[in-house]
């Protein structure tokens, strides 16, 4: 695996290349992401939860509520 510096550098390069006007669609599937990565307005982030246990429903599908909660905790 890569260290955090290399992982961040690769992620930023992928964002720069794949979010151009004429670029193709790209999927990044990963078990984890570093915090505070660079994101572009042309990106769409989908979070998939899978496993034997999931917490009680708490607006899990409401990504904006999750982001607002994260920002409020910072």
From TrEMBL:
MF GO annotations: single-stranded DNA binding
Superkingdom of source: Eukaryota
GO cellular component labels: nucleus; Smc5-Smc6 complex
Protein name: Structural maintenance of chromosomes protein 5
PANTHER family: STRUCTURAL MAINTENANCE OF CHROMOSOMES PROTEIN 5
Entry coiled-coil feature ranges: none
Entry keyword set: Coiled coil
Gene that encodes the chain: SMC5
A Gene Ontology biological process term: double-strand break repair via homologous recombination
Transmembrane domains' residue ranges: none
């Amino acid at each position: 695996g890569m260290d955090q510096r290399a992982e961040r550098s690769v992620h930023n390069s992928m964002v720069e290349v794949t979010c151009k006007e004429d670029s193709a669609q790209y999927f990044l599937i990963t078990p984890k992401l570093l915090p505070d990565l660079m994101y572009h307005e042309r990106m769409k982030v989908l979070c998939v939860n899978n496993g034997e246990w999931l917490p009680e429903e708490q607006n899990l599908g409401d990504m904006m509520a999750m982001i607002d909660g994260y920002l409020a905790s910072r």
